[in-house]
Design goal:
The protein is mainly α. It is about 75% helix and about 0% strand. α1 packs antiparallel against α2, α3 runs antiparallel to α4 and α4 packs parallel to α6. The protein is globular.
């Protein structure tokens, strides 16, 4: 899909294919170092294609991967918080739900149950917005 999108000039569709692949790589359990390398290579491509919304979603997953790997956790938190601010100011419900789902993944992974509960209570039911990410299954 990505290649066809590029060949036909459908940059938005090409970006959509990249983000879908990225979500799937994360959720199927591919090694985090491998995912990190691929995401870091994807961001400049999305910049070139002028796909800023998709790039922001990749940045959210990349920040999550780095935090799970213990790499630059403070910067990862800043990226996630910045994405939430962008989502809130633009009324982008899907982005807000995506960020909250990945933050929840981090809290659960590190067994930060109080923070996870607080996030769920604050964010509400994000599963309705994220049906394509299989998050509701996790």
């Amino acid at each position: 899909g990505y290649q066809i999108g590029l060949e036909t000039g459908e940059n938005e569709k090409a970006g959509y294919c990249l983000i879908t692949r990225s979500y799937h790589l994360y959720y199927i359990g591919r090694p985090l170092d491998s995912i990190q390398k691929e995401f870091e290579a994807t961001i400049p491509v999305l910049t070139q294609l002028k796909q800023d919304d998709t790039k922001l979603k990749i940045a959210v997953i990349l920040a999550t991967v780095k935090k799970l790997r213990g790499i630059d956790a403070g910067a990862a938190d800043e990226i996630l918080d910045s994405a939430l601010t962008t989502a809130a100011s633009g009324g982008i419900v899907a982005l807000s739900a995506t960020v909250n789902a990945f933050k929840l993944e981090i809290f659960v992974f590190f067994q930060e149950w109080r923070e996870a509960l607080d996030l769920v209570q604050k964010a509400g039911n994000v599963r309705l917005t994220l049906v394509c990410l299989y998050s509701s299954v996790r």
